[in-house]
Amino acid sequence: MDKNIVSRDGTLIAHESAGRGSVVVLVSGAMSTGATVAPLAAPLSERFRVVVYDRRGRGASGDRTPYAVEREIEDLAALIGAAGGEASLYGVSSGGALALRAAASGLPVRHVAVYETPYAMSEEDLRERARYTERLTEALREGRRGDAVELFLRLTGLSEAVIQGARQSPLWAGMESIAPSLAYDDAVMGDGGVPVKLLASVPVPVLSIAGDASPAWMREAARAIADAVPRGTCRTLPGQTHMVEPDVLAPVLAEFFAR
């Protein structure tokens, strides 16, 4: 990230941009930095000015306590203001929930596209999210960052063998370094259920996308988002999982953002 803007509470938010045209801001999900969504910027920058940023508490961006979802919405407001005053948003996973909240808050947003925002689709899943929140809060309060990362990886469905293998990976230290931001994504997701009332207040077109190789509940959640917003469309991408290929996703987003 080669530039900083100052958010309303004084936090420095690192970002970079590429391309020309109407602005698209890419919003990463949990355990991610702007680098995670940066591969999508290259194909989109052929038609748009694409802004990639590190959400607060991760990467090159700063942080301040106490955290509130409103602070992240203010970060997006600052980015949009610096980029010209209006933008479309793309959010992946829990970043999609943040993008939807930002649009509902009244920011100058033209379109919102989200990919596999993981809202719970059953009562058991909601109970699991509540247990996760409780255990995550405890682990972070006690400084057990590695345990916090493990809790998140289990929530995503990874096996114990894969998780223990990840602990031995050179990437583990970096994961622990941004573990406190897991609480931020947990807050963005609310109780984990589809926030129907909030989504009903989103005034702009929304494209909700999932991959057909992802679990069925991901596609159900994508449909629920499209059904809850006033101007929603759902799209399924053949052969794609939660780790969507940028070259598959980019043309779909470009078509939507160009409307």
Topology:
Blueprint: E1 3-6, E2 12-18, E3 23-27, H1 34-44, E4 49-53, H2 69-82, E5 87-92, H3 94-104, E6 109-115, H4 123-141, H5 145-155, H6 160-167, H7 172-177, H8 182-188, H9 196-200, E7 206-211, H10 216-228, E8 232-237, H11 246-257
Parallel strand pairs: 3-4, 3-5, 5-6, 6-7, 7-8
Antiparallel strand pairs: 1-2, 2-4
Helix pairs in contact: 1-11, 2-3, 4-5
Can you walk me through this structure?
By secondary structure, the protein is of the alpha/beta class. The protein folds into 2 domains: 3-119 and 194-257, Rossmann fold (3-Layer(aba) Sandwich), CATH 3.40.50.1820; 124-186, no CATH class. It contains 11 helices and 8 strands. The protein has helices at 34-44, 69-82, 94-104, 123-141, 145-155, 160-167, 172-177, 182-188, 196-200, 216-228, 246-257, and strands spanning 3-6, 12-18, 23-27, 49-53, 87-92, 109-115, 206-211, 232-237. An 8-stranded mixed beta sheet has the order 1-2-4-3-5-6-7-8, with helices on both faces.
Fraction in helix:
40-55%
Which spans have pLDDT < 50 for at least 5 consecutive residues? none
Principal-axes geometry comes out as globular
CATH homologous superfamily designation of the largest domain: Alpha/Beta hydrolase fold, catalytic domain
Q: How many distinct domains? A: 2
Total DSSP E strands: 8
Q: Specify the CATH class of the largest domain.
A: Alpha Beta
Rounded Rg: 17 Å
Largest sheet: 8 strands, mixed
Strand order of the largest sheet: 1-2-4-3-5-6-7-8
Strand content: 15-25%
Helix/strand class: alpha/beta
Order of helices and strands: EEEHEHEHEHHHHHHEHEH
